[in-house]
Input
Amino acid sequence: DAGVIQSPRHEVTEMGQEVTLRCKPISGHNSLFWYRQTMMRGLELLIYFNNNVPIDDSGMPEDRFSAKMPNASFSTLKIQPSEPRDSAVYFCASSLAPHNEQFFGPGTRLTVL
Amino acid sequence: AQSVAQPEDQVKVAEGNPLTVKCTYSVSGNPYLFWYVQYPNRGLQFLLKYITGDNLVKGSYGFEAEFNKSQTSFHLKKPSALVSDSALYFCAVRPLRDSASKIIFGSGTRLSIRP
Output
């Protein structure tokens, strides 16, 4: 198995632009998680899905952030409009079920200028 | 409310010496407990977990962790540290029976092993 796949690996954009991050979970995993990691705030859970349904989005910082999971093999995290404070590494992770160990992707390093 | 604490931002150990990375937790009921490791510019990697059973859990790369219910701790240990163990380590907790609850990660402990 290729593991969790994220794209792009690096994204540099200007303030105000729309950013879309993509994730392909491990085949057969039913739970998908989006995290943000910064030096200041550490690792933050933004949202997680179980069987393609959003279960907890309380970590989504504001309405500029949205996430979708249209099918079991694909999810997106969108930021519109982006701001410099959104600069971080965004990780996607998947697991067999919400309580199982998670497998993390390599992350997308986002820089908003 | 559930929480997890890693009281040390950094732990420094000489190669060959035993290492301990501390973790304490607060959760309603029995917990799922996890340790993850993060190498530079990589995602987190699962090391080991405790659900039920034997309090001593063995994981990847020679690591183990001991669940202590009375002290609500789940410290990560290794008998003999390697330079390659230098990384960022995260403890995580989730209530065992609350299917709606999310996993909570600690703030991380940076482990540095000197040659």
About this structure: Chain A has no helices and eleven strands. The interface with chain B takes residues 4, 42-43, 45, 48, 55-56, 91, 93, 98-99, 101-107 of chain A (CB under 8 Å). Residues 22 and 76 of chain A are 5 Å apart (CA to CA).
